[in-house]
Structures are given as structure tokens and as C-alpha cells.
Specification:
By secondary structure, the chain is α/β, with parallel strands linked by helices. The chain has a domain of 273 residues: 3-Layer(bba) Sandwich (FAD/NAD(P)-binding domain), CATH 3.50.50.60. It is 34% helix and 26% strand. It is built from eleven helices and 19 strands. Helix 2 crosses helix 9 and helix 9 packs antiparallel against helix 10. The chain is globular and about 65 Å long.
């Protein structure tokens, strides 16, 4: 007798939703992806995928397509905001493969999203539904129903909310969340490399740590773009949106006095965006019956560990395997949550703690902090999401 494969309804076609869709389709699940937008796309700019996330992507057969759009940094480094002195380095490049089995990637979010969309559509050609905004979720004894704003009802055995930091599925399950403004704002910009002096940016992931702020930059898109993110404390802001455009003059003013290399980057940024950084505590629960959350919908984190997207990749693999080996969908969701909740909560706390570390480079215990930071990356990157007991 052929085992029944539950139908999975995925809400949201961002990075997490498309990774889950591809993973489930490759495992022969019936899926439908409900995306409220009229067309697919991704906002933002750079994204870093460490070895623990690359493991998931290679397992999905994406290594070849990723190679066309990524940049592989030689190492990561921390530098002093004023002097430019390199405080610590960690090998990436070939060393990432030698140590962890997989590379470290820099990608433009839009490029990454495009790779995932192409693969997901090839694996499940009719699965992605656009203009499909979910108005209500109803659970029955044997399944779940997503009611769209159009009145159409989509039925399935399981529903997964992959609808991001402002998740409507999360609010339906657990009520409104309680974000806390950190007092930090972030600037971002992408700069064509040919606008910059030759070799102005090293082929590394650079993090300049400073007084009350830090500045990150690295290559994207095979080295054709440079991604920049600058974070500063002591700000007043209310918008939690990546698409709020700001003035280059304000970006320069905020980082006045920082190293000239960074001034050159900002002066060559044609468009700058500014958003407020909000923090959230780890959630005690992610699932209810046949409905669960994934990625930023359940563990949104500050961008100070470069692990937000990677945690979503790990979620997608874990959830697929739990649904694959457990006959009871509700039990599978509980097992998924049990496997993921502690690790993601630790990473959320790490990201929160890094805010103070990145914003005070002249403390007496800097060497101890740097070593602890290195150890944290070893724990993160060395994790093998495929090596777990997925049965409930």
C-alpha cells in the first residue's frame, strides 16, 4: 500500500517558503504556495550563507546554479573603525570546505530568490499561486483550510507560515508579537565595483567595529557589486522596512570620522536605504495542531550573526524530514519544533549580544570576546542538519 503523502500549504514565497517548497517537492509531497504579491521578487541586497546553510542548498541540487551568481570570500575579518587595523580573521574560501565540507557564499537576495524560484517551479510547475492573500486559517479534525481574501478556500493536511517577520499566520496562531526597538538604525547600499578604486574592497567579509556602531561590506554577484550595511546606536526610528530610502548626505554624516575607506564606499552609493532594527524574544511555541511557522515568522533575529536566512534553510530541511518519517502530521510538526527551537533561540541571543560587542572595540577584554566570537562561528558552521533523529 502506498503511504499517504500529506498536502502541504505554504504561506509565503520568500527565501524560506521557496526553500521549503523545493525540499517538499523533491520529497514527493503535494504542495501549494500562497503568495499575496502579484509577482515574485525579493527586497534587500546582500545575504551571507555559511557552510551549515550551503549544506542544505547542495542537498537540494543547487550547487551548480548558485555558482553562477555567488561570490566566495577568502576569509572573514574584523577591523577597527578608525585605524583600519585587522583585529581578527577567520578563514573561509577553501578552508570552509576543508573544515566543514561546504563553502561560504555571498549572494544578492534577488539572485538567490531567482535560483530558488526556478528550481521550485521546475519541481512543482503549478504550485505557486500569486495574488493569493490568506484572510483566515481554519483547522478541522483531518486537515486545515486557508481562506483567501478572494473567498477561495485552499485545503490541505498541513499549513506552514513562511510569511516573514510580520507573519499573519503567527498572529492568527498566537496574537500580535511584541517587537522592541533597539535604538539602532541600519543603512544599506549596493555599489557597482567598477565605480570604486581598483582593489578598494578586499575579497573578504569585512566587519568594522566602532563606537556605538559597526559597518559591514562584502562582494556580491561574482564580485560585480559591493554590499554595504552600516548600523548606528542612539537613533529615533519607527519603520521596520527595508525599502525606506534615505539621503546619501545623512549616511555620510552618520559615519563621519570613520575610516576613509568607508567614506569612499558611501560617496559612491547611488541609492541608500535606512531602516530601524527591532528585536523579539524567542517564542515558546511555533505550532498549533496542523499549523506551524518557519524562518523569520517564528525566530526573527537581528542581523548580527548573518544567520537569519540560514536558520530558515535548516528549518526547511528539518521540517521536510519530520513530515517524511512521521505518519501523523501534527506529531511531525511537534518534532520539527522540538529539534529547532533551542538552536534558533541560541542564535537569536547571540545576535542580540553581538550588538554590544560590535559597538565597543576598545574594551579591555576584546581578545577574550574575539575568541568567543570565533568559537560561536565554529559551533554554527559545523552543525549538520541532516544528522538528527527526525522520528517523533
Amino acid at each position: 500500500m502506498t503511504k499517504h503523502r500529506p498536502k502541504i500549504v505554504i504561506v509565503g514565497a520568500g527565501l524560506g517558503g521557496l526553500t521549503l517548497a523545493l525540499s517538499l517537492a523533491r520529497a514527493n509531497f503535494e504542495i501549494v504556495v500562497l503568495e499575496q504579491a502579484s509577482r515574485l521578487g525579493e527586497v534587500g541586497a546582500g545575504i551571507q550563507i555559511s557552510a551549515n546553510g550551503a549544506r542544505v542548498l547542495h542537498d537540494l541540487g543547487l550547487e551548480g546554479e548558485l555558482a553562477k551568481v555567488v561570490f566566495r570570500p577568502e576569509r572573514g575579518e574584523m577591523r577597527h573603525w578608525k585605524t583600519g587595523e585587522t583585529l581578527i580573521t577567520r578563514p573561509l574560501g577553501d578552508s570552509s570546505i576543508e573544515r566543514f565540507g561546504f563553502p561560504y557564499y555571498h549572494m544578492h537576495r534577488a539572485d538567490f530568490h531567482g535560483v530558488l524560484e526556478t528550481a521550485a517551479r521546475a519541481a512543482a510547475p503549478d504550485a505557486i499561486r500569486l495574488n493569493a492573500k490568506v484572510a483566515a486559517i481554519e483547522q478541522t479534525d483531518g486537515g486545515v483550510r486557508a481562506v483567501l481574501t478572494s473567498g477561495e478556500v485552499i485545503e490541505g493536511d498541513v499549513l506552514i507560515g513562511c510569511d516573514g517577520i510580520h507573519s499573519a499566520v503567527r498572529e492568527t496562531l498566537f496574537g500580535a508579537d511584541d517587537p522592541h526597538f533597539t535604538g539602532c538604525i541600519a543603512w544599506r547600499a549596493t555599489i557597482p565595483t567598477d565605480r570604486l578604486p581598483k582593489d578598494h574592497v578586499r575579497p573578504v567579509a569585512s566587519n568594522w567595529i566602532g563606537r556605538g556602531g559597526h559597518f559591514v561590506h562584502y562582494y556580491l554577484r561574482r564580485g560585480e557589486l559591493v554590499n554595504c550595511v552600516g548600523v548606528l546606536e542612539g537613533q529615533e526610528w519607527s519603520a521596520e522596512s527595508w525599502s525606506s530610502e534615505g539621503a546619501q548626505a545623512d549616511f555620510l554624516a552618520d559615519f563621519a570620522g570613520w575610516h576613509e575607506d568607508l567614506q569612499v564606499l558611501i560617496r559612491n552609493a547611488e541609492r541608500c536605504f535606512r531602516w530601524g532594527l527591532f528585536d523579539r524574544d524567542p517564542m515558546p511555541r511555533w505550532s498549533d495542531g496542523r499549523v506551524a511557522l518557519l524562518g523569520d515568522a517564528c525566530h526573527p533575529m537581528l542581523p548580527f550573526m548573518a544567520q537569519g536566512a540560514v536558520m530558515g534553510l535548516e528549518d526547511a530541511h528539518t521540517l521536510t524530514r519530520c513530515l517524511d518519517v512521521n505518519d501523523d502530521p501534527a506529531a511531525a510538526l511537534v518534532r520539527y519544533e522540538d529539534l529547532r527551537r533551542e538552536r534558533t533561540a541560541i542564535v537569536q541571543r547571540m545576535a542580540r549580544e553581538n550588538m554590544s560587542f560590535f559597538h565597543d572595540p576598545d574594551v579591555d577584554d576584546l581578545d577574550e570576546r574575539l575568541n568567543s566570537h570565533r568559537d560561536a562561528h565554529m559551533w554554527l558552521y559545523g552543525f549538520d542538519v541532516t544528522d538528527q533523529e527526525f522520528a517523533a
